[in-house]
Specification:
It is a single chain. With about 290 residues, the chain is of the alpha/beta class. It has one domain. About 30% of the residues lie in helices and about 10% in strands. It has nine helices and seven strands. The radius of gyration is 18 Å and the shape is globular. The protein starts with 5 loop residues before the first strand and ends in an 8-residue tail after the last helix. The model has no long low-confidence stretch (mean pLDDT about 95).
Amino acid sequence: MRRFTHFAALDWSGARGPRQRGIALAVASGTGAPELVRPGHIWSRAEILTWLQDVAASQVDMLIGFDFSAAFAFADRGAYFPEWDASPDTLPALWTLVERLAAPDPHFEIGGFLAHPEARRHFRQTKGDVGDLFAPGTGRLRIVEQHQRATKQAASVSNFNLIGAAQVGKASLAGMRLLHRLRPQLPLWPLDPVPASGPLLVEIYTGLAARAAGVAAGRSKIRDGAALDSALMTLGSPPVGMTGAISDHASDALLTAAWLRRTADDAAPWSPAPLTDSLARTEGWTFGII
């Protein structure tokens, strides 16, 4: 397998506003303890973009995981947005559509996209605002999400659902604006081939790292430094040595960076059985779901 020297995990946010307390970024380098990038800093999404562009320019051998979905379900209906003539048919085209409709919104926000009359038909935005094409129940799921639920590897929710504590639809839409700006500076697996050198993006699910570290399902948020160190040591990582309270965003990023370092050398995450070329172009995949 391709070897990397640095492993970054980005805990992202879809909240409105110029800066997001929900964003955290950590890097694990060599065999050392993972470290937060700019600890205590309240990131803007634009600053994250700049950091990633700098990594791309440096061509450092870094595997970078982002905690949002790169796409919506496509395979189940043969389209991201059935009945919409403008519905794209590839990941980059989807990101372009989101960017075009949300372009007037500041700070990578996505109100303009969700206000579009054809787009809003597919989303549950509030309990009283449910589009007529939102799939009943949990909403449409990507193949990777169906697979991880069936195999009990994870329990993600539909990206078309925008309400509730577990929703990731807003963060994913904001993330698509980020990915649009990074193309083609940074390749994304499995849409792009794994390069022989330089950085590579992958979609991650921080709950996978927590489970691998022995954190019980349903209790994956770590908010104590000692508990974080214990989980890191389960992954074979040196502890970070924090004491007392820690934000769950910071702990997610630190733990997942260490998990990426441990997992990247395994062949299985790079070749999950359900993944096809068509899915790679349209839905992508969550690294670590096998």
